Amino acid sequence: MLFARTIISIVACSFALSTAADFISDAEPQMGHYQGSPYATWEKLYAERLQVRTFRQSLNGQQNKIVRRYLQYIPHRIYQNDQTFPLVILLPGGSTSAEQLRFFDMGDRFERLADAENFMLVYANAYPLDGQPAPHVAEQPFNANQGYWRTCVGGPGAGDNFYDVDDTAYIKNLIAQMQREALPIDPDRIYIVGLSNGGEMAEHAARTMGGQIAAVAAVNPVFGLPATLELNACAAEPSQAPLSMMIMHSTPDPVLTPIFESLGIDYEVSTDQSVAAWMGALGVNPESAVDYDLPNTVFEGEDYVGDEHWSLATRNSFITRTNYTPATNGATFTRLQVHGGGHQWPTQKAAPNDDTSTFGFRNQDINAEVIIWDFLKDKLRIAE
C-alpha cells in the first residue's frame, strides 16, 4: 500500500475559502458584522438561532489554554421532549471556519433537516494553522476564525507547535460541554461529518474516537487510515474500534489530484487504498459491493464557455454509490464516487460565486446532507 511519509506535505484546501473572499465582496453586506472576537459571529447567524459557544482547551504538555469555539443549533422540539437525541458535528475544510462552511456549502439546509428529523447540530471550528488566534480580521468577516484540523498529517506551513493543539480533545470537550449544558445527547448516536481537511479530521476521529462515536461521513477527504496502520505522525495501534463510515469523493479531485501529483502520488489510487484499509479494519467484505448510479438530473456547467481545465473537467458530473454488506459487528461502509465532480459539497443549488477554475463545478444531482443523514440516522455506537 502507498502510505508514503511524503503525504505529510499534503494540504487539504488550505487556500480554499481564503481565496473565496476575492469573489464575495458583493455578498458581504448580507452576512452581518463580525467584531474580531472568537466569541462573536455574523449578525445574520444570530438571527437564525445559531449560538456561539466557546471553551478553554489546554495545549499539549503546557499550562496555558486557548479559546476554542463552535456554532450550535438546537431545534425547539428537543427542549419539549423528555428523551435523548442524535448529535451531528460538522467539520469545515482547511483554512476556513464554521461560518464559511455554512454559507458556502450548507445554507440553512442542515438546520432544516435537524428540525424535521430531531437532531442537534454543531458547526465546529478548527484552530489557526500557526497556532495563534487571529482577532485582527474585524474588517474581513469572511476570514475570521479560520482554522486547520490537526490529524496524522501536517498542515501547509505548520510550525513546530502545530501538534500542541489536540483536535480529538477538542471534539471530546465540545461534546462534554454540551452535556454540561444538560442538552439531551444520545451517547449512542453521535456522528461526525467533514469536508476536505474536515473530512480528513472525520476519518481521524474514526481512528481515535471509534468507541465513542457511531459513524462518520467524509466528503472529499485528503487521506485517512484506520488506527491499525501507521500514518505519518500517528503510530499504529493494536486495533480499530468499530463504527460505520461513508466516504464521498470526486474522481478526479480538482484540488487534491494536483497536490498529490506534485508529490508523485496518484490521488485516486491512494483513495482506493484508504477505502480498502478502512473496510478491512472494520470487517466489511469488499466482495459484497453493490453499485448503482444515482440519477444525473443536472448538467453542471452546461452554459460554460471558458477554457479553464477544471471547469471543463467537472461539467455534467454523475455519482456512483457502492453499498456493502454490514460486518458481523454491525459496522457498515458506503462509498459515493462523484465522477468528474468538483472539490465541493454536492448540493442541488450552486453556492454564490463558486470558483470553478480552482474547485470545479459543484455536483448538483444531490443534496449531500440528505444522503449523509439518511446513512447516519439509524447507526448506533458499536460496543467494543
UniProtKB/TrEMBL annotation:
InterPro entries attached to this UniProt entry: AB_hydrolase_fold (IPR029058), Plant_Biomass_Hydrol_Est (IPR050955), PLipase/COase/thioEstase (IPR003140)
UniProt xrefs under Pfam families: Abhydrolase_2
GO terms for MF: hydrolase activity
Assigned keywords, A-Z: Signal
Entry keyword Signal: yes
Domain Phospholipase/carboxylesterase/thioesterase: 168-256
Annotated signal sequence range: 1-20
Keyword set includes Zinc-finger: no
Protein name: Polyhydroxybutyrate depolymerase
